Amino acid sequence: MNYKLTILIIALFFASCEKPNPETQKQNLSGYWEIKTVKMPDGEKKDFNINTVVDYIEIKGDSGTRTKVSPKFDGTYTSNGVSENFTLKIEDDSLRMYYKTPFDEWKETVIKAKDSSLTVINRDNKIYTYSKFKKFDLGKLIKPKISCLFSSLNLT
């Protein structure tokens, strides 16, 4: 019995130490991402509780685009018109995003990319953690309340 328990514990240990699969991470990059925290190289952590701008990432094959957009209350987004293109490469068992603009070149390494969370580290060793942004839709929030109000007044 102890032998089976030991094997199980060792198997769980190795499974928990498994590195993320870069191909799976690539599939999870697309979407609207809201920054939550930035951890500085010295360990200081900055929290972002409210964001007026989110990152929209769109992946096509081994390349992508990152655009800053502002969410609107009707559930749509407004872009500032500036996008950064990048290429995706798998190096040293890690997914890397290589950016190139007329002004600069840099890379980010994806630490974690799941359906609802994204963590990357940049060239300055700052670790950015994002969560999937859930868009606003005031119509869904207000419409039921208005219908309820009209029903109670017998105006429907």
Please provide a written account of the structure.
The protein has an 8-stranded antiparallel β-barrel. The relative contact order is 0.16. It is built from 3 helices and 9 strands. The model has no long low-confidence stretch (mean pLDDT 85). 23% of the residues lie in helices and 45% in strands. β4 (63-71) and β5 form a beta hairpin. It has helices at residues 2-16, 22-27, 138-152; strands at 31-39, 45-47, 54-60, 63-71, 77-91, 94-100, 105-113, 117-121, 127-132. The protein is globular. By secondary structure, it is of the alpha+beta class. The longest helix is centred in the first third of the chain and has 15 residues, at 2-16.
What are the salient characteristics of this protein?
single chain; 156 residues; alpha+beta; eight-stranded antiparallel barrel
